[in-house]
């Protein structure tokens, strides 16, 4: 590595996120230089098929000029304005109206922020604000799930169940509780059907609520498909049973659609795929195809009316971000939604999904692969030491990382979450590109297997 190369300067000056800092200091990383469709190219000119769409987010790939033009046009017209003190601008009005019109359940209003974390963080604050407003100030606890992911702010990461993001950060906050990870393949008992497993998950949730005291439990946060936990699709009947428990104890439900929203699961919303009836919906990522940082939190009218009453009592609604509802981000999001409609992005996902899922499923015959499962264009592939007994590899072997590295050598970007390999390619991926992705993945698996066997 040359002393003044980009890689050396990267090591010298930059703290990378979610990275093993000690090994990064030795090896450096990969700097991406440009994008074209579902491909990205690094500084050395090497081409990669981006099977994660970055961070589950670049839904329209890496070269959609219309989004750059929408940003440029808005920057020329009104590059910044806020939405504090009853002021605002047309792009935020248009986007809010559009989102409410397409919401997966009856929603009343939208709050804009810059990231999925902030949307969920705002939701946590509103859960508390709402219960104070309606005279139930004891309802403060929020239940998330082990391996769930809702963001990295202090509160959102506390609802998340990702041990490595909590340990030594003195988190989670004490009012955040966690119920089971509904990962059927790994955690079902021998002979237990998906439905029986889902019943057990819902029963454990109910037990947690009863242990904590139903009068103290305010909300439940869940992703329709767990992303950061490893692209884990819920077992059959899971959501139906969980929602029945939430209704029984009058617990608000936030559907975290940050990954699933805008076509990922083969419907516009994961909530539609799994028949969810949330009180709040958070979304980000594909909202702007990730070309601009923007997120939205949608709330139902019951929550909104309580907020109006509370703000009347206090004199204002004391919440907001300088860049929340940024006009450039709103303009890019509006153009993104226009492109989804014009190109029937949901129809496209439905069309390419069977080849994507069947191709990954076929890899279950590979000696490293125990299970492959997904929906739409999101899937997780579980690597197993012994698939007959469902015995995982020892974590210290870092087999997931080995496979990820071998894939990268082959020209494929995937993500290892422990020993699960996650796939969420850009939604625009073609059937031929899916086949190329599967071929490169097999190449990566074979290369890892030749190291391990
Ligand atoms: N919620 C889910 C389901 C996510 O996957 C993520 C990020 O991956 C977030 C929230 C946090 O979003 P952000 O990284 O934009 O803060």
Automatic annotation (TrEMBL):
Q: Which cofactor does it need?
A: pyridoxal 5'-phosphate
Against CDD domains, the record matches this protein to: OAT_like
Q: Which domain of life is it from?
A: Bacteria
Write the signal peptide boundaries. Answer: none
| Single Gene Ontology BP annotation | biotin biosynthetic process
> Which keywords belong to this entry?
Aminotransferase, Pyridoxal phosphate, Transferase
Do the record's keywords include S-adenosyl-L-methionine? Answer: no
Give GO terms: molecular function aspect only. Answer: adenosylmethionine-8-amino-7-oxononanoate transaminase activity; pyridoxal phosphate binding
Question: Which spans are transmembrane here?
Answer: none
Family listed: Belongs to the class-III pyridoxal-phosphate-dependent aminotransferase family.
Q: Which PANTHER family match?
A: ADENOSYLMETHIONINE-8-AMINO-7-OXONONANOATE AMINOTRANSFERASE
Name listed for the protein in its UniProt record:
Aspartate aminotransferase family protein
Provide the species name. Limobrevibacterium gyesilva
């Amino acid at each position: 590595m040359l002393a003044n190369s980009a890689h050396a300067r990267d090591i010298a000056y930059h703290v990378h996120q979610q990275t093993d800092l000690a090994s990064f200091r030795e090896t450096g990383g990969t700097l991406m230089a440009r994008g074209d469709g579902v491909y990205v190219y690094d500084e050395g000119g090497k081409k990669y098929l981006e099977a994660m769409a970055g961070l589950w987010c670049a839904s329209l790939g890496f070269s959609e000029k219309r989004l750059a033009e929408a940003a440029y046009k808005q920057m020329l017209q009104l590059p910044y304005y806020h939405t504090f003190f009853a002021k605002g601008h047309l792009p935020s009005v248009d986007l809010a109206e559009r989102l409410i019109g397409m919401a997966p359940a009856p929603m009343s209003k939208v709050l804009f922020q810059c990231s999925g974390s902030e949307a969920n963080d705002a939701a946590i604050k509103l859960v508390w604000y709402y219960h104070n407003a309606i005279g139930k100030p004891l309802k403060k606890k929020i239940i998330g799930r082990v391996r769930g992911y809702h963001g990295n702010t202090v509160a959102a990461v506390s609802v998340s169940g990702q041990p490595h993001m909590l340990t030594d950060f003195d988190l989670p906050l004490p009012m955040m509780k966690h119920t089971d990870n509904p990962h059927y393949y790994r955690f079902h008992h021998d002979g237990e059907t998906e439905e029986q497993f889902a019943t057990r998950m819902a029963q454990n949730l109910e037990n947690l609520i009863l242990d904590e005291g139903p009068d103290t439990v305010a909300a439940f946060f869940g992703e329709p498909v767990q992303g950061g936990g490893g692209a884990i699709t819920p077992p059959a009947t899971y959501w139906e049973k969980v929602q029945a428990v939430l209704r029984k104890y009058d617990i608000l439900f936030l559907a975290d659609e940050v990954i699933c929203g805008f076509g990922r699961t083969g419907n516009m919303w994961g909530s539609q795929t799994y028949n969810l009836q949330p009180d709040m919906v958070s979304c980000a990522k594909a909202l702007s195809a990730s070309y601009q940082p923007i997120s939205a939190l949608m709330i139902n009218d019951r929550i909104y009316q309580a907020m109006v009453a509370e703000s009347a009592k206090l004199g204002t609604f004391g919440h907001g971000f300088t860049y929340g509802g940024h006009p450039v981000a709103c303009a890019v999001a509006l153009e993104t939604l226009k492109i989804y409609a014009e190109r029937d992005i949901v129809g496209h996902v439905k069309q390419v999904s069977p080849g994507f899922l069947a191709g990954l499923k076929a890899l279950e015959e590979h000696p490293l692969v125990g299970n492959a499962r997904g929906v739409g264009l999101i899937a997780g592939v579980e690597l197993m030491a012994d698939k007959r007994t469902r015995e995982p590899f020892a974590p210290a072997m870092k087999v997931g990382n080995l496979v990820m590295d071998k894939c990268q050598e082959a020209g494929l970007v995937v993500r290892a979450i422990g020993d699960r390999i996650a796939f969420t390619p850009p939604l625009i991926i073609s059937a031929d590109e899916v086949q190329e992705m599967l071929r490169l993945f097999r190449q990566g698996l074979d290369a890892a297997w030749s190291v391990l066997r």
